[in-house]
From TrEMBL:
Taxonomic path: Bacteria, Pseudomonadati, Bacteroidota, Flavobacteriia, Flavobacteriales
PANTHER family named in the record: EPOXYQUEUOSINE REDUCTASE
Name listed for the protein in its UniProt record: Epoxyqueuosine reductase
Cell location: Cytoplasm
Cofactor remark: Binds 2 [4Fe-4S] clusters per monomer.
Annotated [4Fe-4S] cluster 1 binding sites: 186, 189, 192, 246
């Protein structure tokens, strides 16, 4: 029987081999510090119409309710920072995370491989994989696992890496060696707060989700409130402003995951191309993309909202 240190090293080495940027591990236990923060955020309706955020409150804070007998939360980061960007500076913009194939599928496949590796190399270890689609506080677990700190824009930030990465978890019933959190390195910087086009960062470390451009362009199903006309900085799907201005993202390096590479036509499309987009073009450009979530009608609504 290998010991905890050996198991931990095996898992981290395999995560690296699978292409993950980094891997941190924390004890599966109730997130005491997060509980009052989440409750306050929900009570102030900062989740807007994302009613699913109200569901499974206890499970969001206690992984042992999601995975019975769980002992460890393995947090993983996967880089998505692109090497190329949209060519037309006047074209409506898409968040960089959505350039390539839908990350849910890409990461789930890697997590499944990691699970199978653990089963084969360590033994009968049970657990579940999570990618941003279950009641798991990804950023809180990643911070607890020492992979970075939660910045003033409420994103996970990492020295020498920045924040252009996805976060995923494996919650398993195996005890491992646990990492410790890192210190906050935001200092007196307020770049993200100053740059947010809709003033969604209402206080340092607090984002009003119902004012965020990503919320309006992805989550909101009805018409975008007219008072936000002219405030979207030309974003048609998601928004990267608070990440683009973050000094730590000077260190972002392009990913090496082929599935995250965009279709060439996505980068080549002009402002006019986007304004005249058809269902056929949408289906071709965004095949297997996370943008399909907003549907052609949703993206078209966003593009029309950006027009003068």
């Amino acid at each position: 029987m290998k010991n905890r240190a050996q198991h931990t090293r095996l898992i981290k080495d395999e995560a690296k081999r699978l292409g993950f940027l980094s891997c941190g591990i924390s004890k599966a236990e109730f997130l005491e510090e997060e509980a009052p923060r989440l409750e306050k955020w929900l009570n102030q309706n900062m989740h807007g119409q994302m009613s699913y955020m109200e569901n499974h409150f206890d499970k969001r804070l206690d992984p042992t309710l999601l995975v019975p007998d769980s002992k460890s939360v393995i947090s993983l980061l996967l880089n998505y920072f692109p090497s190329d960007h949209q060519k037309d500076e006047n074209a409506p913009k898409i968040s960089k995370y959505a350039y390539g194939q839908d990350y849910h599928h890409v990461i789930k496949k890697k997590l499944k491989e990691l699970q199978e590796f653990i089963f084969e190399e360590i033994g009968e270890v049970h657990g579940r994989a999570f990618v941003d689609s279950a009641p798991v506080l990804d950023k809180a677990w990643a911070a607890k696992s020492g992979l970075g700190w939660i910045g003033k824009n409420s994103n996970l930030l990492t020295q020498q890496v920045g924040s252009f990465y996805f976060i995923a978890e494996l919650i398993i019933d195996l005890e491992l060696d646990y990492d410790t959190p890192v210190t906050d390195h935001c200092g007196t910087c307020t770049a993200c707060i100053d740059a947010c086009p809709t003033q969604a960062i209402v206080n340092p470390y607090v984002v009003d989700g119902s004012k965020c451009i990503s919320y309006f362009t992805i989550e909101l199903k009805e018409e975008i409130p007219t008072e936000y006309k002219g405030q979207f900085d030309n974003w048609m799907f998601g928004c990267d402003v608070c990440q683009d201005v973050c000094p730590w993202n000077r260190f972002s390096k392009p990913h090496n995951e082929p599935l995250f590479n965009p279709k060439p036509e996505l980068l080549e499309m002009s402002k006019k191309d986007w304004e005249e987009i058809t269902q056929e073009v949408f289906s071709k450009v965004f095949q297997k993309s996370a943008v399909k979530r907003t549907k052609f009608s949703g993206l078209n609504r966003n593009i029309q909202f950006l027009k003068d």
